[in-house]
Amino acid sequence: MQYNHKTIEKKWRAKWAKDNLYKTAQEKGKKKYYVLDMFPYPSGEGLHVGHPRGYIATDVFARLKMLQGYNVLHPMGWDAFGLPAENYALKNKTHPRKATRKNIEIFKGQLEKLGFTYDWEREINTTDPEFYKWTQWVFLQMFKCGLAYESFEPINWCPGCQTGLANEDLEGGKCERCGSEIEQKPMRQWVLKITDYADRLLDDIDKLKDWDESIKEMQKNWIGRSFGAKIKFFLRNSRDSATSNSQELEVFTTRPDTLFGATYFVVAPENPLIGDWKLEIGNWNEVEGYIDQAKKKTELERTDLAKEKTGVKLDGVVAVNPVNGEELPVFVADYVMMHYGTGAIMAVPAHDERDWEFAWIMNQELRSKNKEEIKVKPVVEPIWEDFNFADVHPVYGRHNLKEESSKDTGDRMIEEEFNFVKKGEKCFTGEGISVNSDFLNGLETQEAKQKMIEWLERNGLGKKDVNYKLKDWVFSRQRYWGEPIPIIHCGKCGAVPVPEKDLPLELPEVDHYQPTGTGESPLAGITDWVNTNCPKCGGDAKRETNTMPQWAGSSWYYLRFIDPRNDQALVDKDKEKYWSPVDFYVGGAEHATRHLIYARFWHKFLYDIGVVNYDEPFKRLQHVGIILAEDGRKMSKRWGNVINPDDIVEQYGADSLRVYEMFMGPFSQSIAWSTNGLVGARKFLDRIYSLSEAVGSEPDKEEIVSLLHKTIKKVGEDIESFKLNTAVSALMILVNKIFEQQEGKISRGNCKKLLIILSPFAPHLSEEIWESLGEEKSIFKESWPEFDPELARDKTIELVIQINGKVRDKMEASADIAEEEAKKQALEREKIKEWIKDKEIVKVIFVPGRLVNIVIK
Ligand code: ANZ
Ligand code: ZN
User: Whole-angstrom distance between the N-terminal and C-terminal Cα of the chain?
Assistant: First the structure.
């Protein structure tokens, strides 16, 4: 029997809105729950069925929490500044504001059809001056605390988007948006000192117990902290060491214990110091040619381990190793990056694989020219007990691993590797015992590092140091569609903040919002906006014309949902205290290192200045897998495989879409759309509808009652742990059982329970049936049903575990445990593992209800 989704769904959405069912208010004494989606960019293409997957899941979750008696905050808004919105507007020749407004309307219309619990009175939009007033306010506080500064360093410039970009905006050296090769361009820019927070951002990751491990790992790597030392080398003219001046140059190393093994020295091609030595360098033309070549390479090409290393020796210059006075040849090579460490390195080919490769390649050339080769000097010997294959560099050696592995196996091979390493015939990057290193000899690596640092510090030749991969956040864009940076430049007073009372500093209207490409934003052309007076001295001054990047508003928006219309403060303190932190945050994994690092940074800053009371913004984090098209490709206009949720809602109903998207597979996995699956979801709902027509007073069979209680327990627990697919499947199993055992009839009391646990997934249909049972209040005013633990308990049995037919262990298992699960559990038991040790498992046999037998060799 089919239900009419069109009339039912429309009716309930109107009623919920009229009754203000989802209006959220602070209620003293009621437990709060804040569940949030990463808010969307309203792009011009509208939503496809992949977008709502996360929104549906948080909605199911929010409804569970409502039914459990929580005061739930589940808001929605728009992240509408930034390049995508602006590029869309440029392409369609409309003003970005107009385009944005229209896109929001489309998005909102699409979302509204899906029956979400959003309180639209809390809707926010990052491009609304009442919102970005506070984005600007945060910037000003950072400026006052010395965390926002102007810099003139070369930055990433995208010739396609015609703007500077942050490191986070690149993907393999290309613009993440348009794919253009990134250039390094020196220009004035605003930078946020996120590196001041690097340690806290890193160390506090361990507090985030309910975050995906993978995302935490990505953040750790992005911050990339390395402990080591800075060491002073001296560069001087090799011909006339007595008279030439020597120049100090520092290197950063994570292995100060290998200082005695440094056999050459490298400077990055961009290092300005090379120019200072122009007169001393005998082969200047060659060096200059190399530097020009290096400029054309992308960062990825330069750092790729698989690419052959290149470089040129600086004839006439040597570097003096501070620990033993040895003179080392100096090279310029592009595997050394200017913006990491100090832009120069001490090279230890015996223990660093990049240096090893470089020396290997360079020596072939030097040999052919009859010049002195780079030495390889082993200074760390491996310890046999800890020796690990992975610490031996496999390529560029006299002994190639591939050849050997065909001849030798096992221990012999390891022993041979060990001996190669000892002789310095292969690169060894592991830790061990210092050798050939004077006062470090005999020490283990950790101790040797320590001792070398002490020696350097005592002699004023270096010190302990930390380095981060994370760079300060380049925060200005030379584009129109962003928050104006609230700074005024005065000839006398320098950069002066716009007074807080003048916020918001509104984005002015311009005739041309196309990027200028000159490194200035289109705002620079509006002279009557640019020219202003200095707030400090009253003299002539000019406004900053750069705008903020699209990541600004999203760095704090979740706080504004708590108190969206406050014009006195970013957020009211009491309200913040009640609702913060976000209990559960759901969104795409692509935000792991950008949005989520930026937001944690801003939040910690707001914590430090007393705006928020908790130092991490998001308690639990879950990432959502992508929905691919039925053909297995990404949904895209380009492939013509986009499915619009509007069409699905029209044909099958919103509840079917909701149930299907939750059922289609584990939430964090990417998965292809299937129309068959959708039809299945609709059939399931039709069955429930017909069930409701057969509600009676006859009591249900014991088996059904017990299964109902199990299902109540399972659905609640599964939603809580975001196993939404198995929650739906449990509901399906229950409904099937009712048809099988009771011909689709069910008692009134149990039908009500079934409807409540179904309602988070299919809210419209559940409300409709609920009402047809004579209920007057909304089903969402009910409580989540309790289950009887006795009835919900799985019947358990004892399974015997045998090894080669002999009983070795026993375990409790549910009576209907699946074969795979039984085998897995048996093999994971400590006792059994002890019996098996490293013996080969031939097969595992399962006899349901009785035993698992493991056959080993
Ligand atoms: C000598 C040495 C010996 C190194 C050794 C390693 C092993 P992470 O861990 O990524 O921080 N390095 C330093 N600055 C560099 C730059 N600007 N471009 C390229 N490489 C640079 O890496 C730190 C190590 O990377 C440093 O430690 C340095 O090489 C290299 F057995 O110094 B090491
Ligand atoms: Zn001034």
Answer: 58
Query: CA 124 → CA 127, 133, 579, 599, 713, distances in Å?
Result: 9, 13, 17, 17, 37
Same domain, 743 and 816: no
Residue nearest to atom 2 of ligand 1 (CA): 255
Integer CA distances (angstroms), 611 to 57, 569, 575, 826, in order: 31, 9, 11, 53
Residue nearest (by alpha carbon) to ligand 1 atom 20: 336
Residue that has been written with the tokens 């099937």 in this structure = 736
Within-domain flag for 72: no
For ligand 1, pick from 252, 266, 309 the residue to mutate: most ligand atoms within 8 Å of CB: 252
Q: 474 CB contacts (<8 Å, ≥6 apart)? A: 155, 156, 164, 165, 166, 167, 189, 190, 191, 549
Please write the tens of the pLDDT for every residue from 766-814. Answer: 999 999 999 999 999 999 999 998 888 877 888 999 999 899 999 988 8
State the pLDDT confidence band at 40, using cuts at 50, 70 and 90.
very high
Same domain, 370 and 348: yes
Candidates 56, 34, 60, 63; CA nearest to 110 is 56
Q: Are residues 819 and 776 in the same domain?
A: no
List, for residues 164-199, the tens digit of each pLDDT value.
888 888 887 788 888 888 888 888 999 999 999 999
The mean of the pLDDT values for the chain is: 91
Backbone conformation region of residue 230, classed left if phi is above 0, alpha if psi is from -120 to 50, else beta: beta
Amino acid sitting at position 222: W
Total domains present in the chain = 3
pLDDT of residue 297: 80
Contacts of 824 by beta carbon, 8 Å cutoff, 6+ apart: none
Q: Which residues line ligand 1 (CB under 6 A)?
A: 226, 252-255, 258, 268, 336-337, 340-341, 343, 345-346, 348, 351-352, 467
Residues 236 and 301 in one domain: yes
Q: Which domain holds residue 309?
A: 226-382+428-467
Statement to judge: residues 835 and 787 lie in one domain: no
Crossing angle of the two packed helices 724-742 and 702-720, in degrees rounded to 10:
170
The answer to whether residue 406 scores a pLDDT higher than 50 is no
What's the confidence (pLDDT) of residue 775? Answer: 95
Residues in the chain: 857
pLDDT at 228 over 90: yes
**CATH code of the domain containing 833:** 3.10.20.590
Comparison of pLDDT for 399 and 322, the residue scoring more: 322
